Amino acid sequence: MSMFTGYSSLGRHSLISLCMVFKAIFAVSLLAAGAYTIANALTASSNSFKKTKRRKSSKETKTKKTKKTRKSKIGSSSSFSEAFMGTNSSSLQSTHSVSCNYDSGVDLSFSHTSANPTLSSNIKKKRKTPTDNDCTRKQASNEAYWEFNLYGDEWERMDPSIIRDLERAFSSGQSTLQTCFENPRVQTFNTYQFDLSSLEQINVDTGYRRKIRRVAPPRKSAKRKALESEDTDRRHWVTKSKRSKKSESFLYRVAEDSSEFQELVKIFNSSCPQNFRRILNIMRVENKYLHDRYILAKKSIKSKHGSQWNESSMVRKLFHGTKHAAIPSIIQGVDAGFKPLLSGSRTGDIYGKGSYFSSRANYSDTYTESLNGIKKLIVADVVVGSICLGHRQMDLLPLRCDDKRYDCAVDNIANPTIFVIQDVAAAYPSYLMSTISCRSENLSF
Question: What span, in angstroms and rounded, lies between the C-alpha atoms of 28 and 33?
């Protein structure tokens, strides 16, 4: 009995010792797991801190480089200013322009005309050199291009060299085209045959077929086509920049030794008695908004006449006389132009309502006013179109036999010298001519 009791007490102590060992092992494992978790958290926070520090340092480096670049640009512009301040003023008498483009990206330009001298100094970022993709996108907006079908509704644009070959074949009416080029997907050269009738691309080596299609360029609007077709009217213009606002209007002096000046002198001298008045100067009116409106009106009248349109007789250069105070409202701003509704307010409307013009300079000169012996006469481009005989009771131009209205009323059908138009946009004030009497000029000597 005592022996069994001894064994039982020994087994109890062993069991207790074993439990204590397991508890110790469990506690150690918990401590190890906690230490591992803490170590991972510390490592992660350290890495994030390093990344943040690296980003800040890179930003500081970029900021320093940007400041250095700006300083170098300002230095370049100041050197140009010093050079310009030493320029002799006598060299700026004629119309000219000088532009300087530096490698640092500074774009400095100086433009001068006898009527409008301006100095512009702009610091711009240097433009990025266009890549092939940029050129491709620009070409795609203006020209037709070809695409092949990847799968479903996905299409991909072809290589520019292949597009050129396909366009030549398409324009010449060919039905097939065979060419060899590198396939960028597998970087191997393959021979392809293009069937332009069934619009298929066939890999001659593998026999694989794909659908192809031609994407036509966007059509230009009727307004844009009209403006481009009549761009010859602005062949003498100075303000050809697209950056100029439509509401802006400019006056530029026409050079006396130019063919433009001589042509206007010939028209003036042939339309008035000899030694009537002498031309002092001619200023060209450049109002883009007003001229665009005139071009569209001209196109509308031209389409109305169809095959009966005659440019030489239906579009004329005519004279218009008015007071000095009324000239700015005719040539400047968006609301400029001739005002048919105001006709007759000062001189009467002998040939009906509308804006009055004459082919004789001495007739229009009677409606101008003298300022220190100088008179100003407007030379306008007028679309006269079809003409009818005007009279005082004519408030609206009559209908023709084809139920379309006449475009202009005149004083004489056989040999008209006075023209009356009711369309606000059918006349454009092209030039402002300053004249002086030859008699008063002779008396002054």
Answer: 9
Helix (H) or strand (E) holding 74: helix 2-85
Integer Cα distance of 403 and 336 in angstroms: 31
pTM over 0.90: no
C-alpha closest to that of 438 among 364, 358, 365: 365
Q: Which segments of 128-276 are extended strands (E)? A: 145-151, 154-157, 176-183, 188-195, 200-203, 209-215, 249-253
The DSSP 8-state label assigned to residue 221 in this structure reads P
pLDDT 10s digit of each residue in the chain, 445 long?
444 444 455 566 677 777 787 778 877 777 877 777 787 777 776 666 666 666 666 656 656 555 555 544 444 444 333 433 343 433 334 343 333 333 333 333 333 344 443 333 343 444 444 444 444 444 444 678 888 888 888 888 888 888 888 888 888 888 888 888 776 666 677 888 898 888 888 888 888 888 998 888 766 565 555 555 555 578 888 876 544 555 567 889 999 999 999 999 999 998 888 778 899 999 999 998 899 899 999 999 999 998 899 988 999 999 999 999 999 999 988 788 898 776 655 556 889 999 999 999 999 999 999 988 899 999 999 999 999 999 988 889 999 988 889 999 999 999 999 999 999 899 999 999 999 887 655 444 3
Q: How far apart are the C-alpha atoms of 384 and 422, rounded to whole Å? A: 10
Q: How far apart are CA 312 and CA 117, in angstroms?
A: 37
Radius of gyration of the chain (CA): 42
**Tokens for 55?**
């980003």
The long-range contacts involving 196-200, CB below 8 angstroms and separated by at least 24 positions, are 196/166, 196/169, 196/170
The CA distance from 148 to 200, in Å, is: 9
Q: Match 């992660």 to its residue by tokens.
A: 44
What SS3 class is residue 303? Answer: helix
**CA dist., res. 338 & res. 340, Å (int):** 6
Number of neighbouring beta carbons within 10 Å of residue 233:
15
141-169 b/e (C-beta count within 10 Å ≥ 16 → b): eeeebbbbbeeeeebebbeeebbebbeeb
Which of 358, 264, 364 has the alpha carbon at shortest distance from 318? Answer: 358
